[in-house]
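Thread: quick sanity check before group meeting

JM: Hey all, I'm pulling together slides for Thursday and realized we never actually wrote out the predicted structure for the chain we discussed last week. Dropping the sequence here so it's in one place. If anyone has concerns about the input, flag it before I start.
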Amino acid sequence: MRFLFLVPAALIALAASSAPAATLLAYGITGTTSAQSFAPTAVDASLTATSFATGSNGYIYTSGTDPSRYLAVESTQVESQTPSVSTVLADASYFSFTFTPAAGEALSLTSLTFDARPSSTNRPSFFVFSSATGFTSADVLTDSPSSLSLNFNSGAFTTYTVDLTGASFQNLTTATTFRIYMQSTSAVSSIYFDNFALNGAANAVPEPAAWMLGLLGGAAALGRRFVRRILSVVRGKAGARLVSSLALGIALAALSTSPAGAATLLAYGITGTTTAQSLAPTSVDVSLTATSISGGTGATIYTAGTDPSRYLADQPNTPESVTPSADAVLADASYFSFTLTPVAGEALSLTSLTFDARATGTSRPSFFVFSSATGFSSANVLAGTPSSLNLNYGTGSFSTFTFGLTGAAFQNLTTATTFRIYIQNTQTVSGIYFDNFALNGTANAVPEPSVWALGLLGALAATGRRLFRHARLDPVPVRR
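JM (edit): ok, ran it. Output follows.
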């Protein structure tokens, strides 16, 4: 009876145990001679992963006959035929990939396997490293069979296994990189790789609330006898103190969820040059991630202006009537857009979207702003000031437009939200210039259930001593 409270905690620990080992990430080289691909071909839901990348002296490309292809790795440096870890580390002749566990996941690895063979009889070598252990000569990972002075062996691939059962590769919760360094022995030597598989298990990391609620559940298992004693004093002054303390705990927990002051969460100040334009965000708050600006099928977007002062030019592909019509632009998909996604544990409450805009000429174009938070129909166009209809060219100067986002649909956002700006032109050469986008609002930490649980436990503790004294001095007869 006295150990019943341990049962829920044990069940939670069991829930946190590892799933069976499986392939978490795979790279099976794909593509064609004209469109090679180094992206992963299988990614478990417990993580994200990058494409293959190279160090400053590494060079990779796909080789083989379509569609059966493999990764060719060359070093731009020619080293001695004697294997040397320090030499390849100094030359940065590697290729790499990085994976990042998803929020709430801990990855425990077992092995990295892949196929490899030399391109000729020049006997190159390779060495495997990971950020989990380090990138020094002492940190090279052990593989089987040996990856030193590879034997051509009639051009057949050999499967290599790198053991990852060590403590450094267990319960990973942050980004981890693997690098494979190549030591070439001649200007024409290279190594072919294929069929990479990172194996292990994904373990759900229990929230503090899970442990807290488990212990509360355990207490409840023993609670009937104890609660009867507590109830004998709740009716008196101690009960009043309990109620007031509970209210204080709840208030403190609620206070932890109050939003910070409003600020610019996301900004796009158009940058780049005529040869290297950029539509990526120029400022992103840590509470979210955001995409670059992209165009719909019915619009052409590009940067314009004189370097380095540039702005976004949007020109719809289809001329419409000079009379503003949200239905017309929605049908033509003549928009550009961006998407923001709150990070795990954050809720965004928006206040406004502001940006500068002007017509490219005197043709009086219009634009309309929409968001996925409210919908993409003509009834959902967002109101802004000044009016975005039939823009007056004026002297060709920019005007600042503000769109209020204080409505309920834009509060406490926890999922991806897209904004689209649709352009209605009046002739084939008309368009609108945009610049200095700012999405304003606050980031509110979403309280874990443990915050509320701890608030309640703290409140109980505030009056617990007196309750225990009363229960001990004035016990309630227990019916057996």
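AS: nice. The two ends are 16 Å apart (CA to CA). The helical segments are 6-15, 85-91, 208-221, 223-234, 237-255, 326-332, 449-473.
JM: adding both to the slides.
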